[in-house]
Design a protein that fits this description.
heterodimer; A: mainly beta; seven-stranded mixed beta sheet; globular; B: 11 strands
Chain lengths: ~120, ~110
């Protein structure tokens, strides 16, 4: 049973470009969470999605960031017009149940560098 | 405001030297307390879930315990391969928004 997959693993973008991060959850998981980890900081929740629905995006900046989880295909985190402060590791996690008492399984992350 | 605080920030141990990591939380309506291990350049790896005060779970040299205000991760007779950053997280709300601590970086030397 393959784990959570993320690609690309490393992404370099110049300021002003767009970054697209992809996440394929574990088989049978329909709940996807995105987290951001800045250097020397902990993981911060960004957004929670189920298939075709955004359930909670309270941790995601209102501008330039968007997320989707279509009926078919991976979940996508999109960052438009990237700035240096967007440089971080972005992790996707999936769970078979969207409940606070159920563990989430993380992917290897995408490390975004903005030059 | 919900908070999860881990201490110490870093811990250096000799192989075989047991120790404990602390995770204190001020989270209203905690539904679950989770421990993860994170190696450099990798995603967090799930270790344990604890649900209620007094609960304990073990896996190899690791044992996690939970009280009403904090959780401990005990590392017994650690080996160099136990070197990693250990993260704890509180699950709140009804649907699983995790609040993570900043982690404890553990280095075990031979």
């Amino acid at each position: 049973n393959a784990g959570v997959m993320q690609n690309p693993r490393h992404l370099v973008r110049r300021r002003g470009q767009e970054a697209r991060l992809r996440c394929s959850p574990m088989k049978g998981h329909s709940h996807v969470y995105w987290y951001r980890q800045l250097p020397e900081e902990g993981l911060k929740f960004m957004v929670y999605l189920q298939k075709e629905n955004i359930i909670d995006e309270s941790g995601m900046p209102k501008e330039r960031f968007s997320a989707e989880f279509p009926k078919e295909g991976p979940s996508i985190l999109r960052i438009q017009q990237v700035v240096r402060g967007d440089s971080a590791a972005y992790f996707c996690a999936s769970s078979p149940r969207g409940l606070a008492d159920y563990e989430q399984y993380f992917g290897p992350g995408t490390r975004l560098t903005v030059t | 405001e919900d908070q999860v605080t881990q201490s110490p920030e870093a811990l250096r141990l000799q192989e075989g030297e047991s120790s404990s990591l602390n995770c204190s939380y001020t989270v209203s309506g905690l539904r679950g307390l989770f421990w993860y291990r994170q190696d450099p350049g990798k995603g967090p790896e799930f270790l344990f879930t604890l649900y209620s005060a007094g609960e304990e779970k073990e896996k190899e040299r690791l044992k996690a315990t939970l009280t009403k205000k904090e959780s401990f991760l005990h590392i017994t007779a650690p080996k160099p391969e136990d070197s990693a950053t250990y993260l704890c997280a509180g699950g709140t709300d009804s649907w699983g928004k995790f609040q993570f601590g900043a982690g404890t970086q553990v280095v075990v030397t031979p």
